[in-house]
Each structure stands twice: as structure tokens, then as C-alpha cells.
Amino acid sequence: MSDLTTLQYTAEHEWLLIDGDTATVGITDYAADKLGDVVYVDLPAVGTAVEAGKVVGEIESTKSVGELFAPVLGTVTEINDAVVDSPDLVNSAPFGDGWLVKITLSGDLPALLSRDEYVALTAE
């Protein structure tokens, strides 16, 4: 993904690409860098109902274990099996092949950040 300004972001370091009623979700390069080398990714099953702000999985690295939060209300419609098989994609391509889940949205989007707002947040 080349234009990061087309994405929306959360304060929990996730990015979202909204396409109609589907949100593709991943973690940002900032989060991937802070985690270190990702060695394991646990994602929710397809069909799982998720609630914004609730933990839905985890990302384990050589440094720590981080929680994956659902950024929106909806249902998981797809998981990225490539990331499960090759967790290092989260580090090497966080905005591309390292995406994590796709969620069909239910209801309104929560307040999200623009790229500029996210960059300002991580600069603090």
C-alpha cells in the first residue's frame, strides 16, 4: 500500500482501510517496530463477532506479547492465513501483505485518526 493517507488509524496502533462495509485491519509500522521480530500471530476465527476496543487476538514477538484490539464493531469475514504461516510479514510489510483481518462493519465507525494525527500521536 503506497498512500498511507488513505488509511485511518487508532491510538492502539492499528490501521484500517475502509471499503464499503468492510474494514481491512493491520498494525502500523510503528507498532511492528516497537514489538520487534514477530514470531506468532493469533487471530480470531472467521465468523467471530467483535466489539470495538475489545481484545481479539495477540501478536507475539521476541521482545513481548501484544494484544490485538478490534477497532470496529462487526464480524470477522477473513483472516490473513499468510501472516499466521509467516508472522514476519507483520514486520516486513505491515501496510501490505502483513494485514491481519477483514471485518464486516455493524453500525457507525468510532472516532479514528488521520495519518497526520497518528504521526503526531507517535511523535510524543
Helix-and-strand structural type = alpha+beta
- Percent range for helical residues? 10-25%
Mean pLDDT: 94
What would the principal axes of the Cα set say about the shape? Answer: globular
Report the order of strands and helices.
Answer: EEEHEEEEEHHEH
Order of adjacent strands in the largest pleated sheet: 1-2-3-9-8-5
Descriptive keywords:
single chain; 124 residues; alpha+beta; 6-stranded antiparallel sheet; 3-stranded antiparallel sheet; 9 strands; globular
Task: Sum this structure up briefly.
By secondary structure, the protein is an alpha+beta fold. Helix content is 20%, strand content 35%.
Describe the structure.
This protein is of the alpha+beta class. The strands form two sheets. The chain has a six-stranded antiparallel β-sheet with strand order 1-2-3-9-8-5. Strands 4-6-7 form a three-stranded antiparallel β-sheet. It is globular, with a radius of gyration of 13 Å.
Strand and helix map with partners:
Elements (H helix, E strand, L loop, with lengths): L7 E2 L4 E6 L2 E6 L1 H7 L2 E5 L6 E2 L4 E7 L3 E5 L4 E6 L1 H5 L3 H4 L8 E5 L9 H9 L1
Antiparallel strand pairs: 1-2, 2-3, 3-9, 4-6, 5-8, 6-7, 8-9
